Structures are given as C-alpha cells and as structure tokens.
Amino acid sequence: MAKDILEIGDSSFDAEVLQSEKPVLVDFWAPWCGPCRAIAPMVEELAAAFGDKVKFAKCNVDENPATPSKFGIKSIPTLIFFNQGKVLDKIVGIVPKSQLEEMITKV
Amino acid sequence: MKEADYELVIIGGGPAGLTAGLYAARAKLNVILIEKLVPGGQVVISGWIENYPGFPEGVSGPDLVQKITEQVKRFDLNIESNEVVSMDLFEPVKKITLSDRTISTHTVIIATGASPKKLGVPGEENFYGKGVSFCATCDGPFFKDSVVATVGGGNTAVQESLFLTKFAKKVYLIHRRDKLRADAILQERALANNKIEFLWDSVLTGINGLTHVEKISVQNIKTGDKKELPVDGCFMWVGIVPNTHFIADTVKLDEYGFVIADLNMETSVPGVFAVGDVRNTPLRQIATAIGDGAIAAITAENYIENIKK
What we know:
By secondary structure, chain A is α/β, with parallel strands linked by helices. Chain A has helices at 13-18, 34-50, 66-70, 97-105, and strands spanning 5-8, 24-29, 55-60, 78-83, 86-92.
C-alpha cells in the first residue's frame, strides 16, 4: 500500500477524519470487493498528486463495521470526501479519475 | 503511408481489449489502449468464474483481471486512463477525440463492452448504493441476516442470487418468465436452495424506503396481482446495453445497438474492428471476448502491413 494513504478504523475515525484540519478523502473498501481493488491504484495516484492539500485515508469495512454503518454505506467502493467534519461529497462505485479529481479540486 | 500518432488505438480495457493489446504489444505495433474507468471491465464485478479454462477450481473476476493486466504490462502495453468522446473515421487516418486532446491512428479496435441494463423503475436511481446494487460480491456482506430481492433469470442473476444466500436469510428471485434461462447446473443449485423463494412471471415495479431500501413492489404479469415485500436490498441483473454512445453513426450497429463485425472482427469501416460484448456476437463470455481480441489484433496488424506497401 502506498505510504500516502492512511489506514483508519472505527477507533481512529473521529480524530483522523472528523477532527482533521485538512479535507479528507476516505476510501471505504474490503478485501473481497473487486471494484475496490480495481480503483485502489487510481486513489493512490490521486494521493500522490493531491496529498499536500488533501488527506487520503482508507477504511476496511470488514474490520470496522461501525463507521460505514454510520454513513449509511451499503455498497462499496464508496468514497466520501469530508471537510471540517462534514460530508462534502460521496461517490459510489467505479467512476472516471477525472470525476474524482473534480471532487477533490472543488475545495 | 500517411503519418499518424498511432498504428492502433484500442478503446476499452476489458478482456477483449486487453487481449488485443497483448497481441498488438507483442507484435510491436505502436499501440495505445484507452480505458475510461479501470482495466477489467465487467469482470471486475464478477464473483467466481467457473467456465474460463485453465482454472480447475474457478477464479475470481478481480484475480483474473490482475493476471491479464500483469501479463500485458510485461509487454509494455501503453494504457491511458481517458475517455473517448467521439471518432472521425471517414479518412484513412482516423481521428479519436479524447476528453483532453485528439489523436490520430490507422486502425481502431472498439472494445467498450456493455453495462448492466437498468430496469427504469421508480427508486432504482435514488437508492443506488443505499440498498440497490449490481454487484453481489461487493455488497453481499452488507446484507447479513437480511432479506434481499434479486431480479433476472440468466446466469448472472442465478449465480449471484446463490452467492447472496451465504449472507442473506432470504432471497426473493423475481423473474418475468416461469422458468430460468441460466445454465442447467446453476438452475439445479438455485432450485435446491431453500433460502431462495422464486417469484415467477413477476416484474419489479418499484423500490421504496426513507433513507434506504425498505420495500419493493412486485406484479405478477399473468394474474395482474400486485404485492409489496419488505426487503433490505435489491440486486438487478436484467441484461446489458452496449457502450456505444461515442460511436454515433461512424460504424454500422445492429437493431439492438451492438456493433456489426465480420469473422475478422472488421466493422463497416475498413481498419475499424469491434470485439467482445460490444460486438453483435452470439455469446458474451470472457472466453469469446479473448478470442475476438486476438483475431482483431492480428487483422489490424495485417491491415497496417498492407497500407505500408
């Protein structure tokens, strides 16, 4: 896994995401999810490009069931973009990289 | 021969496009593969594949994609994440307009595949990701001890319904006919599974809930009877639509919108080929897509050799 992406879970979510000064993109994924594996390199590329402005995090929904449930996640991959503890945007499924870039650069 | 940026542009990186890329890269063609999302196409959301030869125990879709991708990378296939907006195929040097620039090429392989068809019922769009799903392997585990509905009677619908029984306590399989279309072995397994309740001759007419899917409306098309069923999720596999929006009227399509191509995978335009699910093929499988891709790459190579003369 790329070092630019922070592994977060139920216990660290509040501190790392909601309390973060920088905006945070959280990739909710699981090992059994093919499309999650497929978009991972794309998220890593974005982290390399925008890592100075945005914090990139990933949350394994298998090991951390409380957080996805809190945000009503029923499909993965789901990417949620947080800023100042609030949900700015949410993307479900595989989307073009340009759409993710657009979401990130909106802040 | 007139100058062009590429000898071959492959549009789409599913099994057909990747195989065309593998053959073209090994033939040392000046080739680029354009993929809008991620390599693998629909195989990425396929759970377990039992009918692709060489894997006696079966293989997961993502694993197969990873192997094919590693294989093409070994031969330095250039894959770009971009989208084709339109094509101009009237001149011998063809122009492909991408989201940020236009490239020129002598040959084109269209390998854009197909997408799951939407039913178009109320609630389907709104509840996508909130209980509505097209990927059982991705989302099945969210429905542990839940009740889910599935729609369709083909191989995908039946196989994925069986997969969902590992998590859900009950699966309603809604099918508009009175028998399944899936392979006999899948039918046998589904009919013997006591977690699956079949709703024959029935169609899904609506999906309802507050923030998530809570119930669905189903109508029996023979008797006209309507009923509502409480469910937590709804999965749909009712066929596919070809991804041809960028094609406009450049190559001939059949009455269902699939690209017409001959035995050499050549379309109505010389030097333009169509492979895999987007083609008017009698069978849409990984095995057939792979064959299409190989044929098209070789035909494209011959075409390029001929115009060089």
